[in-house]
Amino acid sequence: MEERLIVFTDLDGTFLDHHTYSFSALEAILVRLNKLEVPLIFCSSKTRAEIEAVRQKCSNSHPFISENGGGIFIPEGYFPFPIQGGMRQGEYVVIKLGARYAELIATLRQTSVNTGTSIRGFNDMTIEEVARECNLSDAEARLAKQREFDEPFYLLTQDVEAERRICKAIEQSGYYCTRGTRFFHILGKSDKGKAVRLLLSFFRKVKSSLVSLSLGDSQNDLPMLKETDYAFLVQKGNGEYDREVLEEIPNITLAPAPGPQGWAYVMSHFLEKLAFS
Ligand SMILES: [Mg+2]
User: Fold this and answer.
1) Mean pLDDT over all residues of the chain?
2) Which pLDDT tens digit goes with each residue over 12-50?
3) How many angstroms does the Cα of residue 105 sit away from the middle of ligand 1?
4) Hey, which residues are catalytic here?
5) Does pLDDT of 1 surpass 60?
6) How far is CA 232 from the centre of its chain?
7) For residues 44 and 10, is the Cβ–Cβ distance under 8 A?
8) Where are the domains of the chain?
């Protein structure tokens, strides 16, 4: 293979099943990607600790992107050159693109007051509450609460106007507001796309002819999906496709199934079509 394939994927509702968080449907295709030595990069709104748990389960040792592009974690020595702007943290070199968590919490509180919109964020929730809301175990919810660059939240009343109002107010305060598989998110001027672009520039230093591909299910994946040569959209748990993604990228490849089932289907077809296998 002359060209090198690199894959970026969202986790919740894409690589992981929306309800069960299982990725057992991907077993065979992961073996194939592994054989082809394709770097599989997790790019999620999940925290470092949560992504580490998924990496461990599927023996993934590639760099990853946490909290909607807030942090890029590169295993020490992964690239044969020093990482500009990176800071050594444990076994990683970390590039922080996101805003500080405390700053996000303060802004979210203020925005909630200013817009008269009642919201509830991870910071307001107990571990048990996060576990219940996300269908996680308490141990997993503990990892989900270890946030650094992004705060997930929901509105206490279902009201499209209020959703628009709070997102607009967040943007006016100089932050981003996006929607993931389960929650709204407030974050700094970082997104999945910026992190993907930066990481791709490192891979290009090693291999000039790269083919990049990304997979997602929600609006927060849009910047990532726009950044790669190929982009695939999987169905949400209810069988629908994200409307905003469809509007922004009308020619995106649609997976005919939700989450990991859709992931496995489009990926195996892609490998055959481009003769990567
Ligand atoms: Mg998702």
Assistant:
1) 95
2) 999 999 999 999 999 999 999 999 999 999 999 999 999
3) 22
4) 10
5) no
6) 14
7) yes
8) 4-98+191-273, 101-187
Residues constituting the chain: 277
**Residues 105, 123 contacting (CB under 8 angstroms):** yes
Distance 1 CA to ligand 1 centre (A): 31
Kindly report the pTM of this predicted structure: 0.94
In this structure, what token pair is assigned to residue 262?
Answer: 């859709």
**Best CA proximity match to 104, nearest among 73, 148, 64:** 148
Q: What percent of the chain has pLDDT over 90?
A: 93
Dist. CA 82 → ligand 1 center (Å): 32
**Paired tokens of 100:** 């500080």
Q: How far is the CA of 91 from the centre of ligand 1 (A)?
A: 27
pLDDT value for 276: 57
> Which of 97, 79, 94, 99 is closest to 39 using CA atoms?
79
Rounded Cα distance between 161 and 155, Å, is: 11
What number does CATH give the domain 4-98+191-273?
3.40.50.1000
Query: Which residue in 147, 227, 228 sits closest to 194, CA to CA?
Result: 227
**What is the Å distance from ligand 1's center to 14 Cα?**
6
Average pLDDT over residues 100-106: 96
What is the fold, at CATH topology level, of the domain defined by 101-187?
Threonyl-tRNA Synthetase; Chain A, domain 2 (3.30.980)
Residues whose CB falls within 8 Å of the CB of residue 59, separated by 6 or more in sequence, listed in order: none
Distance from the alpha carbon of residue 134 to the mean position of ligand 1, in angstroms: 12
CB atoms within 10 A of CB 167: 18
